[in-house]
Amino acid sequence: MTDPGLSVVVASVNGLPYLADCLTALETRAQDAEIVVADWTDDATRETVRRRWPRVRLLSFDEPKTVPELRAAGIADTTSSYVAVIEDHCNVREGWADRIVELHRAGRPVVGGPVYNAATARSRDWAAFFCEYSASMAPAPVGEVETLVGMNVSYDRRALDAMRPLLEQGRWESDLHPHLQRSGLPLFADDAVALDHAKDFGFREFVSQRYHYSRSYAGMRLESLGAQRWVHLLGSPLLVPVLYARIAGNVFRRRVHRRELLKATPLIVLYLCVWSFGEAVGYAFGGGRSLLKVR
């Protein structure tokens, strides 16, 4: 079988219209890539994919799957030397695919780049974006970095082999990427490896997402924390000022979107309070089924 060079794995948990926009962008800006969609949304979404994008390899799941599980299933089904991972609410930009391949061929095992906000109509859109992606927003550092966002990252086969056991465990990039760095595989960021985050979160939806994401995050840490879980539980309220300071620092260092940050601050603080509460619940009672509800 001919190696297509780059495979793109799309974790699909939001369905239409997001997935349609995502695949349209890939169709025009990653024309030579092998596209694998791992989906557990609904029959209408899958039928649309089969009809409009027949060359897309579609993996359908009737039972709920977490985003890491969908990523792992998609990666396992790829055939290329390099595998990029995005999500259905992401629209890649011009030059994204070519730059990924170029960097991998230059010897970079793990490649990523910045995330732009494409949902800008309301303060709640900006609040969600800052909470999720302030550390990855443009202008981003270029060169070796300590972290890359998990929905805009590409791996060569060395990296995939190194993190395979963690992929099979359904781990997020917060576990995968430090493991790769400890294995001698550095993370590399480039501003041409850019995409747009286009998810329009409703208020209740994002509150739910913050809670479930933070609870699942805390739940996954319990085994390694041991008795220290109670220290983290009691200290969880401190996350609100710490995380807000981190978000504000990311914005002000980049000298962009300061006005949007100030306008969105009340919502951001509310979302951070929800995150803090979710972590506390996770440390006290475990992650439960929260990971399955993360979009």
Structure overview:
This protein has 295 residues and is of the alpha/beta class. It has two domains: 6-113 and 148-197, Spore Coat Polysaccharide Biosynthesis Protein SpsA, Chain A, CATH 3.90.550.10; 203-293, no CATH class. The protein has eleven helices and eleven strands. It has helices at 18-29, 43-52, 67-76, 96-105, 123-133, 157-168, 173-182, 203-225, 229-235, 239-254, 258-285; strands at 6-12, 34-39, 57-60, 82-87, 90-92, 110-112, 115-117, 143-145, 153-156, 187-189, 195-197. Strands 3-2-1-4-9-6-10-8 form an eight-stranded mixed β-sheet, with helices on both faces. β2 (34-39), α2 (43-52) and β3 form a beta-alpha-beta unit. α5 (123-133) packs across α11 and α8 packs across α11. The chain is globular and about 50 Å long. The mean pLDDT is 94.
Question: What's the SSE blueprint?
Answer:
Elements: E1 6-12, H1 18-29, E2 34-39, H2 43-52, E3 57-60, H3 67-76, E4 82-87, E5 90-92, H4 96-105, E6 110-112, E7 115-117, H5 123-133, E8 143-145, E9 153-156, H6 157-168, H7 173-182, E10 187-189, E11 195-197, H8 203-225, H9 229-235, H10 239-254, H11 258-285
Helix pairs in contact: 5-11, 6-7, 8-11, 9-11, 10-11
Describe the structure in brief:
The chain is 51% helix and 15% strand. The protein has 295 residues and is α/β, with parallel strands linked by helices.
